[in-house]
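Side project, low priority. Logging it here so it doesn't get lost.
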Amino acid sequence: MAFPQVEAFRGGDNLIRIVGHRGARGVLPENSMIGFDFSLSIGVPLLEFDVVLSADDIPVITHNHRLHAPSFRDADGPFLTGEEPKVSTLTFEQIQKFDIGRLDGNTAYGRRFPDQAQMDGVRVPRLLDLLDLVSDPQHSDACLMLELKSDPDLAHDACYRETFVSLVLQEVRSKALSSRAVLHSFDWNLLEECQRQAPDMPSSYLTQLPENAEDVGEDSSKAVCPDFRSCEGDIPRLVKQAGGSLWCPYYADVTAENVELAKDLGLCVAVWTVNDPDDIARMIDLRVDAIVSDYPGRVQRHLSDRGMRWR
């Protein structure tokens, strides 16, 4: 089946797409409406973001399964300390009491993004809030790389997978956005459930080789991602066999050979998360289809300097 939204992520002659990672995490609060709006405003209509369920089964946009202490402040202003509450134990109303507009520069995570604007009054959005934004006619070219965050504690629970996927799809379909969304995950079992419930929507397979270091301050993908140590060269084939339309590898795992193989198989190759100028340049040289970045403007600059397009 041909999916129009896959073509929105596919590159071409003199064309590499740009995907705003969590909106534009390098410059604005991640997974925030202001970050998504910024990405759209600079001509980057492809948005990557993370969805988990609240206690009252509302799909919310946040990366970790627990409230992220370096970026969550309580109602009194301080950043969270002690054990981080799990998102799935809090209602959406309770989650709204926390402000995500600043980063704690005293943490290793905060030091990763020294240029992120510091704001007040920024809240965790619902999936529905972002769907409403891109439903506006002025954003008719926007497409969503919707990552379903698989809870490692529930990853083997078929009922959990079925419910999670069903609730997300219900909201996407309620806004008639099925043709503009890609279902995206490290959890291949979860993607299988996505294909069962939504054969009309493409799957994007995230991968990371186990030897790569985990990102500081973030939930690890390794608890739910397959272990590819015995079949590194066959990952694009495995993605294709699983029914994938996009392969989304960690940028350090990408080679000329596996990009060529993936493209020969008809897969769209979108690499994550590429922030360093030298790494951006290498991905351009490899002619990947799309570059997922916390700094979409930085990728624009590299492409522009080479006379290349991103739209």
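Brief comment: The CA atoms of residues 75 and 97 lie 6 Å apart.
Revisit when time allows.
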